[in-house]
Design brief:
The chain has two domains: 31-186 and 231-317, Alpha/Beta hydrolase fold, catalytic domain (Rossmann fold, 3-Layer(aba) Sandwich), CATH 3.40.50.1820; 346-484, no CATH class. 43% of the residues lie in helices and 13% in strands. The chain is built from 13 helices and eleven strands. The strands form two sheets. It has a nine-stranded mixed β-sheet, sandwiched between helices. Strands 10-11 form a two-stranded antiparallel sheet. It is elongated.
C-alpha cells in the first residue's frame, strides 16, 4: 500500500516547495578540475573581472560545472566564496550572477555553480548530497590560482541556507558561512507558514488557514512529495564552529523574518559559537534582492550596502577579526506566527486518508449506484431513507474531491501571494460550500439512520446492507471532516 501513497498525495497536492536529524555529509573526494570547451555564461563579464569556467565532481561522483569570477588585477591571494542555490533542480549559474558579480568586484574569488539535477526532484532530495556539492566547490576554489585556500567559505540562499551550515559542520576547510533567507526551523513548518500567512494577509480567517492548509502540507510530506520536510536545521547550526553571517530581507514572505533570527541566534549559542552576525536588509525580499512591492516581486538589483557588508564581513572573518555576537537585530514585523508541523500521527496518515476516501466512494457512491440500478430494473420502490439518503450520498461523495481540488489550489496559489477569491466573513466561497456539504452530509446521515431505526424489521436484507454502508460512511465522515476543518468555524 505504501507504494500507492504518492499517487494519492499527488491528488491531494501537486506541489510542495521547498522544502530527520542528519549524519554529517560525506567528505569531498579527490577532484578533477578542467576548463570547459564552451563558455557557460550567456552574459558579458563586467569590466574588471575575469571568468573561468570549470568542471568538477562531487563526493558521490556527480559531475558539476560552474564559473569562477575573480578581479582582473588581484592584490595578493584572494578570499573565496562558493554560492549555493535555493530550491529547484538544475538551476543555472546565471541565476546568482548578480551576487557573484557584486562580490567579485569587491575583491573576492566567487564560484557560482549550476545546481545538480541528478537525485533532486519533487519526490527526492538529499541535503547531504547538496552539502557534498558545496564541499566539492570549496575544494575546487581552494585549488584555484590566486585564491587563499585558508579563506574559502560558503554562501547559501533560501534552501541553501540549510545546506551551507551542513557543509561547514562537515569540513574545517570551510572558513566561514553566510546564510540569506535561511532559518532554524524544519522546512515543512516554514513552507506551511508561507502559504498560511499569504492567505491570512489576503483576509482569510477560520478553519482553512487553521486546519486545512497545515493538514494538506502534512499529507504532502507524509506521502513523500516533500522530501527533507523535517530536516533539523537547528541541529546543523549547533555544529557550526566557523564565523557565520545570517541575512534576512525585511519583506521576506517565504521565511518568517521575525522568528528566524532568534532561532538562529539560539542554535549557534547553544553550540558554543559566539562569532556570528545577524542582519536585516531594508527593502529586500526573501533572496536578499530589492523588492518594489514588499516582497511580492523580486528584482535583480541588490540592496544598497549588501555587497559591502558581505565583503567587509568576510575580510574580518578570514583575518582573525570575526565579529562577536551581539544583540539581536531590531524585530522585523511578521504578519503571523508559524504553527507546529510535526509528522502525521497514525490516525492522520495518508494511509488512513486513503482508506477514508475509499470508504466514502463505496458507501456514498454505492448507495447512489444501487438506486440507479433499481430504477433501471423497475424495482425502485420507496427507499427507507428517502431524500435524506440521497442528500447524504450526493454531498458525501462530492465533498472529498472538492476538498482535494480546493486545497491543491490553495497550495499552488499560496506563497508570496494568495488568491482566495470572493470572501464572506473571512471565508472563501468554495470553502463555505465545503462547509455546507459537510454539514448536509452529517445531518442527512443522522436522518437516514433515524429513518432506518423507525422502519425496524420492515427493512429488507439488501436495504440493510445499503443503509449500513451509507451510515458507516457518514459516521467516518465526521472525524474526517473535523480533521480537515469542515465542521469547525
Amino acid at each position: 500500500m505504501r507504494k500507492a501513497l504518492p499517487a494519492l498525495v499527488a491528488l491531494l497536492a501537486v506541489v510542495a516547495t521547498a522544502l530527520p536529524a542528519w549524519a554529517s555529509p560525506p567528505a569531498e573526494t579527490a577532484l578533477t578540475v578542467t576548463a570547459l570547451n564552451e563558455p557557460a555564461l550567456t552574459e558579458p563579464v563586467p569590466a574588471g573581472l575575469t571568468a573561468t569556467d570549470v568542471a568538477f565532481r562531487s563526493g558521490d561522483g556527480t559531475r558539476l560545472a560552474g564559473t569562477v569570477l575573480t578581479p582582473a588585477s588581484p592584490r595578493g591571494p584572494l578570499p573565496g566564496v562558493v554560492l549555493i542555490h535555493g530550491s529547484g533542480p538544475g538551476t543555472p549559474r546565471k541565476k546568482l550572477m548578480p551576487e557573484a558579480t557584486a562580490f567579485a568586484l569587491r575583491g573576492m574569488a566567487v564560484l557560482v555553480p549550476d545546481k545538480r539535477s541528478a537525485g533532486y526532484s519533487m519526490y527526492q532530495r538529499d541535503y547531504r548530497a547538496l552539502a557534498g556539492d558545496a564541499l566539492a566547490g570549496v575544494a575546487t576554489l581552494r585549488a584555484h590560482p590566486g585564491v587563499d585556500p585558508a579563506k574559502v567559505g560558503v554562501w547559501g540562499v533560501s534552501e541553501g541556507g540549510w545546506i551551507a551550515p551542513m557543509a561547514a559542520a562537515a569540513s574545517k576547510d570551510v572558513a566561514f558561512v553566510i546564510m540569506v533567507g535561511g532559518n532554524g526551523m524544519p522546512p515543512l513548518r516554514q513552507q506551511t507558514w508561507a502559504v498560511r500567512d499569504a492567505y491570512l494577509r489576503a483576509g482569510v480567517t477560520g478553519s482553512l488557514v487553521n486546519r486545512g492548509v497545515p493538514a494538506i502540507y502534512r499529507a504532502v510530506a507524509d506521502g513523500g512529495l516533500f522530501p527533507q520536510a523535517q530536516h533539523d536545521a537547528a541541529a546543523a547550526l549547533r555544529r557550526v564552529t566557523q564565523p557565520l553571517l545570517a541575512i534576512w530581507g525585511e519583506h521576506d514572505l517565504l521565511t518568517p523574518p521575525g522568528e528566524s533570527p532568534p532561532l538562529v541566534d539560539r542554535a549557534l549559542r547553544s553550540g558554543g559559537n559566539r562569532h556570528f552576525t545577524l542582519r536585516i536588509l531594508p527593502g529586500a525580499e526573501h533572496a536578499g534582492r530589492l523588492t518594489p512591492d514588499r516582497g511580492v516581486t523580486r528584482l535583480t538589483t541588490l540592496p544598497p550596502g549588501y555587497a559591502e557588508l558581505v565583503g567587509s564581513w568576510i575580510a574580518d572573518a578570514t583575518s582573525g577579526r570575526a565579529p562577536v555576537a551581539g544583540a539581536l537585530p531590531p524585530t522585523t514585523p511578521q504578519h503571523s506566527l508559524t504553527v507546529p508541523a510535526p509528522p502525521s500521527a497514525w490516525g492522520e496518515s495518508v494511509a488512513v486518508q486513503l482508506a477514508a476516501l475509499v470508504l466514502f466512494l463505496v458507501a456514498f457512491g454505492g448507495y447512489a449506484a444501487t438506486a440507479a440500478v433499481r430504477r433501471v430494473r423497475g424495482r425502485d420502490g420507496r427507499p427507507v431513507a428517502g431524500w435524506a439518503g440521497r442528500v447524504a450520498s450526493g454531498c458525501g461523495l462530492v465533498a472529498g474531491p472538492l476538498l482535494t481540488g480546493y486545497l491543491v489550489y490553495a497550495v499552488v496559489t499560496g506563497g508570496r501571494t494568495a488568491e482566495p477569491g470572493p470572501l464572506l466573513a473571512g471565508r472563501p466561497l468554495p470553502w463555505l460550500l465545503l462547509h455546507m456539504l459537510a454539514v448536509a452530509t452529517v445531518a442527512a446521515t443522522a436522518l437516514s439512520a433515524l429513518a432506518w431505526r423507525r422502519a425496524g424489521r420492515a427493512v429488507s436484507g439488501a436495504e440493510r446492507v445499503r443503509l449500513g454502508l451509507l451510515v458507516t460512511g457518514g459516521v467516518v465522515f465526521v472525524p474526517w471532516a473535523l480533521y480537515w476543518g469542515l465542521l469547525v468555524p
